[in-house]
Every structure is written in structure tokens, then in C-alpha cells.
Specification:
Layout lengths: L16 E14 L2 E13 L4 E9 L2 H14 L1 E3 L11 E5 L2 E7 L6 E2 L2 H9 L5 E7 L3 H13 L4 H8 L3 H6 L1
């Protein structure tokens, strides 16, 4: 079985679009009062099968977003996108968040909730059915979605591993 980090990509000369999924204000109470800081969950993608997610933390919102973008660029993966959809169904889990993604017919659109939608659109997937099960924590949902996309396999790779023709992969 393929591991999630077998399909890493370098950010080098890719044109990536950033999407801020969530910003969380964190408060630490000290004897001198309250200390505020922010964490930003960011998704980046080129809209053509490359996507990454990152988490940035800082005292200012903009700085947290910038750090999140840099972290996301370090965690890019290649996603097999076939005719605007994914090659097969995939279930993935991160913490208490579970996600289920399923290929859809052309013209269906991205049927997914908030943070899942951001990841799928950044990857360039235009037709997919997705369901978030369990926890709705945006960080874990995004991580589970990226993990699900990373474990997808192309039909050609499956045929090669099994030692059968591509036609037999689809017809069983």
C-alpha cells in the first residue's frame, strides 16, 4: 500500500492559491493579564492536482496567516485528478474527524462542507461527493481530507501492482 508522503511535491515554481479555512484566537491568562495569540489554518493549491495544508501561530492575525501559508507550501501533495473527479472512494480519519470522499459524474460540482470544500477546490477537483463524519474540528477535518487525497491511487498504478490490464481494473 502507498504511504501518504510518497507523493510529495516541491512548491518551487508552482502558482499556488491560498485559502484561509479558519482563524482561532487563543487566550493565555497570566498574572499580568490576558495574552492573546492567533492560529490560522490555511490551504494552498494550484487547482491542478497539487494541494497542501498548514497551521501558523503568531501574536498577529496576518503573521499567523503568512506562517500558515509557508507551512502549507512545505506539505504539498500530488492528487490524482481524473476528468475533474477522484479515481475511487476513500475514507480517512484524523483524531475524531472522519471524512468520506466519493467520485461524482461530470457537472455534479463539489458537494462538501466548509473546510473539506476548501481542500477539494484547492486541489482542482470539480466533481466530488464528500461527507464529514464525527468531529467538525476544522483542523482535523482538513488533515483527514488531505490524508484521504494522499492515499488515492491512479488506476494505472493499481493495474501495475496487480499485474493486470487497465481494462480489468475497471471491469473487475
Amino acid at each position: 500500500m502507498l504511504k501518504a508522503n510518497d507523493n510529495r511535491v516541491k512548491a518551487g515554481d508552482l502558482e499556488l492559491k491560498e485559502k484561509v479555512v479558519s482563524i482561532n484566537r487563543v487566550v493565555k491568562t497570566t498574572k499580568g493579564g490576558r495574552a492573546f495569540s492567533f492560529s490560522a489554518l490555511v490551504v494552498v493549491g494550484n487547482g491542478a492536482g497539487v494541494v497542501g495544508q498548514g497551521l501558523g501561530k503568531a501574536k498577529e492575525v496576518q503573521e499567523a496567516i503568512t506562517k500558515g501559508i509557508e507551512d502549507a507550501k512545505k506539505n504539498l501533495i500530488k492528487v490524482p485528478v481524473m476528468h475533474g473527479t477522484i479515481p475511487h472512494e476513500q475514507l480517512s480519519k484524523e483524531g475524531a474527524a472522519k471524512v468520506f470522499i466519493k467520485p461524482a459524474a461530470h457537472g455534479t460540482g463539489v458537494i462538501a462542507g466548509g473546510s473539506m470544500r476548501a481542500v477539494l477546490e484547492a486541489a482542482g477537483i470539480t466533481d466530488v461527493l464528500a461527507k464529514s463524519l464525527g468531529s467538525a474540528n476544522p483542523t482535523n477535518v482538513v488533515k483527514a481530507t488531505v490524508k484521504a487525497l494522499a492515499t488515492l491511487r491512479e488506476p494505472i498504478a493499481v493495474a501495475k501492482i496487480r499485474g493486470i490490464s487497465l481494462k480489468k481494473v475497471f471491469n473487475g
